[in-house]
Give the backbone structure.
Amino acid sequence: MLDFSWAELLIILAVAVFVIGPKDIPGLMYGLGRIVKRFQYIRFAVSQQFDDVMKSHDIEELRRGVNMEAPKTDEKEADEENKDVG
């Protein structure tokens, strides 16, 4: 992904200290941490909603595929229909 060596990372850190200033770096890091935390929460919430939708869809598929209720037929009518056919 990002391939930085330790030397490159130290150079970037030194440039950041000169450009931003040592007093502003903690506030910048705090803000960056909040943004990263917010993105992680959004990713978690979206994946949780996706899982919930998939679980509810799977349960509905199972309900449609397997009929748990006894068939509602009238035995007398079924016997009369079989007499007419046979």
About this structure: The two ends are 75 Å apart (CA to CA). Residues 11 and 83 are 94 Å apart (CA to CA).
